[in-house]
Design a protein that fits this description.
The protein is mostly helical and about 240 residues long. Helices cover about 70% and strands about 0% of the residues. It is globular and about 55 Å long. It starts with a helix and ends with a helix.
Length: about 240
């Protein structure tokens, strides 16, 4: 028993010595620069164990944003929020041009139907629904949401919700297929109806199949290497089209 107690006291003494040495080393690291300034030239101390302490991330620039909105998604933290960041618009605006062409085609179709069928025009609510879907699509894919979608988890989820819920619902309310059937000739109308009423379209459009496809797409694009590969390719594409100067 006496021998065991001596061993324990010896280990405790060694532990106290190591802690004291570590405390002295920390004091030397912190105060080393100040000591060097007070020493005359030629007699400065030489510290061999000066360890740089890692700097904590400065989150003061994100004042006004909660910590929840700062959760990273798949990229680095975005720049400081500002008016310029809020007015950001993706360039080149390919999606903007496609949406503009689609809206122009819609209004031209409305004009033709109004001229050919003045007693049965397209309800105005369908046009409002289509314009709303187009604006939300631009907001999700071209505005500041697009800039932060791969950096902030909160913005990433906002983009998901816009693309999954209000935009498809508004497109269904606009009923563009019905408008296309009204514009088509009898021959093309028969072909379109045969396609829409086919067994393949019926299976794909079944609610159960649609939910399974949605879950598969979410898994394939987020839980597989496909998403990281898409980010790398997008970054390379942006670097190529970024104006020089």
């Amino acid at each position: 028993m006496d021998q065991d107690e001596r061993h324990r006291s010896h280990r405790n003494a060694e532990g106290d010595q190591q802690e004291g040495a570590a405390e002295i080393l920390r004091d030397d690291v912190v105060d080393g620069s100040n000591d060097d300034e007070d020493q005359p030239k030629g007699s400065r101390k030489f510290h061999t164990h000066s360890v740089a302490r890692p700097e904590k991330p400065d989150l003061d620039q994100y004042m006004g944003m909660s910590l929840l909105t700062l959760l990273p998604a798949h990229g680095p933290l975005p720049p400081e929020p500002s008016l310029a960041a809020a007015l950001y618009w993706y360039s080149p605006p390919i999606i903007t041009l496609l949406v503009a062409v689609g809206l122009a085609a819609w209004f031209l179709a409305l004009r033709r139907i109004r001229r050919e069928h003045p007693g049965n025009p397209v309800p105005r609510s369908r046009t409002v629904a289509l314009v709303g879907a187009a604006l939300l699509l631009l907001l999700a894919l071209q505005s500041v949401i697009e800039r932060y979608d791969t950096t902030l988890f909160s913005i990433h989820m906002v983009q998901h919700l816009l693309l999954l819920f209000p935009i498809p619902i508004l497109l269904l309310r606009a009923a563009p297929v019905t408008l296309l059937l009204r514009l088509a000739s009898p021959r093309w109308r028969a072909r379109l109806l045969a396609l829409l009423q086919s067994r393949a379209v019926g299976v794909i459009s079944h609610p159960l199949v649609a939910w399974i496809l949605l879950a598969f797409v979410m898994w394939a694009t987020h839980l597989s290497p496909l998403f990281d590969a898409a980010l790398e390719n997008l970054k390379s594409l942006r670097d190529k089209i970024k104006p020089r100067g």
